[in-house]
Write a structure and sequence with these properties.
alpha/beta; 333 residues; four-stranded parallel β-sheet; 14% strand; five-stranded parallel β-sheet; Rossmann fold; 2 domains; 36% helix; binds N-carbamoyl-L-aspartate
Amino acid sequence: MQATLGFERPKHILSASQFNRAFLDYMYELINQIRKFDKTKDGLMYLQSLLPHRRAMLYFTQPSTRTFMSFQAACSILGIKPSEIRDTATSSERKGESIDDSLRTFASYVDLIVMRAPVAGLSDRIATLLDATPRPVPIINAGSGPDEHPTQALLDIYTLQRSFKSASGIEGKTICMVGDLKRGRTIRSLSRLLANYPRTQLIFCSPPEFKIADDLRQFLSSRDVSFEETTNFTAAIEAADAIYMTRVQDEYDQAGATKVDTRAYCLKQEHLPLLRRDSVIMHPLPRRDELDPAIDHDPRAKYWRQERNGMWTRVALITILMGVDSHIVLPTL
Ligand code: NCD
């Protein structure tokens, strides 16, 4: 099946860079099909019959509400029984066990590991480690420090594609990302996925202290993605087909760091008339004051849908990793 669809079945989900356009198009159709099963009890019972013989570990040692809960819900939708660790104080890491040994232990008991940790690159290292053991299991990176958040980017792509369904898709659109672009892993992963859509323009709008990192700049140049960096929030709002707001990632502040003034990068009700009628407003959440709750009623606000799309996206990704996506009937692409 994969050969004809134009992508290799992924063994793990570690980075947004691993996905091509064929995968993204396939995932979009798969999620739409999965959502149809949600409409009836029989449909949901069918989904639950796909993986009741499988177990998963949710290893989240950084705070999480949406990602954790949506993975938990995705497991339950597919009949998977998840175990969880949310604090190393309750595991043998507290007794001095290495992270590597802890994760190898999980692999002895479960068939899938979803992990979020403050360390960049940890999920890649664990995937390599487990691949060399007799019991390798798929790893999903659910957030690796300030580096990557590939499943968030995949659900963001799904949301963008749905939003631009009747406007010829994501290609050629102007996507504006705002906030702490230096340490925000969501924008780093999303920018990488957007490189798969020709003629897309990226606008990175932030205070000078929070500009995108060099490695992302180089990646985008190497993929010929057109992008602009600006401090002009008003101009960015006016140009955007989608505006993607993010919060300050101050959990990564060094001791004694001075607070960056981000007051000029907050989307408020007074900005709404500047935004195009068919634009969309997104945010990975949680939000602070960069996104005024008064905007929630605006039809262009898509962040609550984005949050729910996260659950369906994660269902789709698990079916692909566990090899049961072919049990969900797909229309011919
Ligand atoms: C994001 C994250 O954890 O990177 N949240 C999420 O997963 N939806 C964004 C954030 O915390 O700012």
